[in-house]
Amino acid sequence: MSAPAGTTIHDLNGSWVINKELSDDMDQALVMEGVPWLMRKVASWATITYKNTHIKDGNGCTVLTVAKSATGGIPGETQVHTLDGVEHVYESILFGNRRVETRWLDLRSKDPISGVVRREDLDPYLSQDLLDQEAGDSPGHIWAAVTNERSGMRGEQVWGFELIAGKRYHVNRMVLRKGEERVALRIVFDWAGNQ
User: What average pLDDT does the segment 187-194 reach?
Assistant: First the structure.
């Protein structure tokens, strides 16, 4: 189901399920991250759900907690994205250690992440087809930089919303690189309610 009208990047609370029909094939990205063949096969069949909790901490910083679960015996994991621009390390059974830096992204600006990423340095795929969700002075997208310590993969992600076949969906666009390899993909999420 498409995203409810009132849902924005500033309130992603609720459950979101990866829509495999609308999403790009994730196999090449999983290969790049060093995920074994059998786990990739299981992931291709599994229903993967993200339960998001979106809050402000005591300092007024946005914290997005993503509890991922999957059918098919894939272990669940929780990632905490603090949109403070500080690199955090997460341990993952599936991916190994990942260093993640998460920030707000203002796609209207020539300097969308002040001092970190200039507009011309942002891979065009990451912002392709994203809806303009900025309201006033508030950025309308989330940017994350991810480094997989085990595989050497580096990636960038942009989270936002897109119109797909006339319906508004929450999406995560990513570009992953390892050596000369580059994988670009879009993950599309169905809204599953406030479960």
Answer: 94
